[in-house]
Design goal:
single chain, about 70 residues, mainly alpha
């Protein structure tokens, strides 16, 4: 590969990297929107939400009102 070919290839790769970085940066801001509502009316998801709430309640009811550090 000649030096000119290497430099052209490097320019192409740098351009592609800039494009990819701009795409990734744009997705991060509102990535949650791509999945929002995807579990609507899903009985398994509803069950998971209820089980999570029950678990968190069980952690609260087992304490004396004070939170202790867990190690």
């Amino acid at each position: 590969m000649t030096q000119a070919q290497v430099l052209k290839r490097l320019d192409d790769l740098e351009r592609e990297l800039r494009e990819l970085r701009s795409q990734v940066a744009g997705e991060g801001k509102n990535a949650w929107r791509s999945i929002a509502g995807s579990f609507a009316d899903d009985p398994l998801f509803e069950r998971a939400v209820k089980m999570g709430a029950e678990y968190r309640r069980s952690l609260r009811s087992g304490s004396s009102g004070r939170r202790t550090k867990q190690r």
